[in-house]
Every structure is written in C-alpha cells, then in structure tokens.
Amino acid sequence: MAVGEVCNREVVITDRESSILEVTKLMRRHHVGDVVITEDRDGERVPVGIVTDRDIVVELLAEEVDLNAVDIGDVMSFELLIAREDDDILETIKRMQGKGIRRMPVVNQRGGLVGLLAMDDLVELIAEQLSDLVKLINTEQSRERNLRG
C-alpha cells in the first residue's frame, strides 16, 4: 500500500514568518498538534519544516523564551523527513520509527505538499482493519453454526 492512499490530505500550513501565537491559534482552530511550514517553489507549496505543540511547549514555554522574540522559522524542525505519495507504507513507517518521529509530510513528484502521514492515523487505520477481520471471523463462525445446526 502506498503512503498517498492513507495520508491525511487536510494539512494545516503556514510560512516561516508566522508568529508563535499565529501558529498556536491555527492549531487550536483546526484541532491539530502540528503545522507544516512551507514555501512557494515553482507554484508548489514545498514543506521546509514542521512545528508541533510539543516543540512549542518544550522548546519555548518550558525555557521561558519571549514568544515575541522568535517566529516559527526559529523553532521549526529543519531536518524534515519527507515521504513521497508512492512510497511503500511499511517502509515509511520503519523510516519514521528509525528517526523517532510521529508525523511526516507527504509530497508529490514535484515536491509539493499533498498530505501528512501521522502515527495516530495509522493506528486508526490498523484498528479499522482489525475490526473488519473480527467481523469476518464472526460471520464465518455464524455461517458454520447455521450449516451444522
């Protein structure tokens, strides 16, 4: 299965010049824990960083940083791990695990942002598939009982 089949296509984005307050308001408004930082390149919104709610708490609030003295470009993750739409989902999960990240921007062949792969979404997908398997087993067992009985 390809990453593009399971990634969330609704991604909250902003640019490097956004303030910390603007980004936290975006997170609250959209009920998300991350914002992808993008820049325009040849008509594509290319991901250049990501900021999570944890980044803001651990790197800024816990360190008592003056939030007016920094913008998102100062705190975003620069070593961005990116997946392509056609990357294999299992290989991508292994890459995420190897780097210890829970969220990964997904791009098209031109490098433009098309989605976000998040561990939470993957857990939900796996839970749905397991539920479907349980239903299949129950249906098959019920069918066997009816044939015997």
**Class, according to the CATH hierarchy?**
Alpha Beta
Structural class call reads alpha/beta
Please report the number of helical segments.
Answer: 6
CATH topology: CBS-domain
Rg, please?
Answer: 20 Å
Which strand order spans the largest sheet, edge to edge or round the barrel? 1-2-3
**H-E string:** HEHEEHHEHEEH
> Which residues sit in consecutive blocks of at least 5 with pLDDT less than 50?
none
Give the % helix.
40-55%
* CATH architectural group: Roll
- Taken from the alpha-carbon principal axes, the silhouette is elongated
For CATH, the homologous superfamily is named as CBS-domain
What share of residues are in beta strands?
15-25%
Secondary structure tally: strands: 6
Number of domains: 1
